[in-house]
């Protein structure tokens, strides 16, 4: 990857001037990442060898297919790596990664035991790499360990991948107001626009250390080594895949506190961790995203705790623990479930639907709309109210003490509009496949916000997506991709103007 300059070159090269769209830089990077994904299959292969259930050959086959396939794509496009990436190529690269990697990542599910259909395999791989956590697999308790750890690896790789995309590409592409963090990237990485490789290196170190700390914490509370490893991978990535059909309900109550802490840490902006490591001890405290996210969790936990006290009186510790764990899981987009919160009453169920549409901080592994967009929205509304009250006054919405640029406000408002419209369209499309209203609207929200479980008896915390028809699964697969890439990065590819040289 060092051969690609990660500058976003707005000038057109010779191929663009001749009316041709040069795909080689995109193909080169995608090919390398596919090859890396293939090499990652060594881990589940070794796990299956150690388990001795005869499934290691599946990962050997898929590793060879994926590694060779990715390498051939990269070699075929290697002669185009001298040019920088244009805005057009960067949009295409961002989306292509999350389309092709799930296809190759689905191979172990198709060839493994039990073998999945192409639809189910791609759904599971897309859910993994987008860290959604929705699953179509059943009988997880008895599944080969190679497949279980592969699910965890997919989510872990997807988590680090989305951090890099959120810190490098989306601010430059001005997607959904992410450009507000562009100057922040300069401050964080030494006054120069960081390359993807440099960011990946610095963030990966912190990401690995957080994962190791999570593994050790789970081990200290009694998880076995395999469960601790897989659940650490899916906790830090805020992915939510578990080794058990009961999800996190398979473990003791103390584990929920540890998981809650690490889910919150993973949902905070990783740029702040870099600053913290470099000696800026107030980096996290001064970030309005962090303060808003933690305050939101505190308020929501208090509300659900009070509601649970009416449902389960005299069990205050359990009420607090279940409220903390499940709210943190949903708001961060992790998607673990320790209990069937559909039994908590209609108020709590409605709350969980809207909690999932909040999300964590930008530049983290968390998903959904994100806290900073709500903060910008509220700042804009507050400014408008002041203007109505004082028509002759001059008021400017501010974020983190700085005026919010007009293009940021426009991007954020556009994002909210597209999110609501897309949510409605996906819900309608799902209802046309025969699903009931609750399953359709909650499934649309769970996929588009990359939460994981929906609501209702079918896809709620006590169920999964296995019984849905193939059409519904493909709709949800597309929604997971669109939501993970902040909508606009995908939608721009559907415009005619994008493909004009």
How would you summarize this macromolecular structure in one to three sentences?
63% of the residues lie in helices and 1% in strands. The protein is mostly helical and 501 residues long.
Secondary-structure map:
Blueprint: H1 14-17, H2 24-40, H3 42-51, H4 56-76, H5 87-105, H6 107-111, H7 118-129, H8 145-173, H9 182-188, H10 196-220, H11 225-236, H12 253-266, H13 270-277, H14 283-286, H15 288-311, H16 316-331, H17 346-355, H18 371-389, E1 398-399, E2 402-403, H19 406-431, H20 437-448, H21 456-459, H22 470-484, H23 488-491
Antiparallel strand pairs: 1-2
Protein name: Trk system potassium uptake protein
InterPro entries: Cat_transpt, TrkH
Pfam family, one: TrkH
What is the count of β-strands?
2
Distance between the termini: 25 Å
Give me the strand/helix succession: HHHHHHHHHHHHHHHHHHEEHHHHH
Mean pLDDT figure: 87
Protein name: Trk system potassium uptake protein
Function: Low-affinity potassium transport system. Interacts with Trk system potassium uptake protein TrkA.
Family: Belongs to the TrkH potassium transport family.
InterPro entries: Cat_transpt, TrkH
Could you describe the 3D structure shown?
With 501 residues, the chain is mostly helical. It has a domain at 401-499. It is built from 23 helices and 2 strands. The protein has helices at 14-17, 24-40, 42-51, 56-76, 87-105, 107-111, 118-129, 145-173, 182-188, 196-220, 225-236, 253-266, 270-277, 283-286, 288-311, 316-331, 346-355, 371-389, 406-431, 437-448, 456-459, 470-484, 488-491; strands at residues 398-399, 402-403. A hairpin with a 2-residue loop joins strand 1 and strand 2. Helix 3 (42-51) runs antiparallel to helix 4 (56-76). The longest helix has 29 residues, at 145-173. The model is unreliable at 1-8, 10-19 and 185-194 (pLDDT under 50). It is a multi-pass membrane protein. The chain crosses the membrane at residues 26-46, 58-78, 90-111, 148-170, 199-221, 257-278, 290-312, 347-372, 408-430, 474-494.
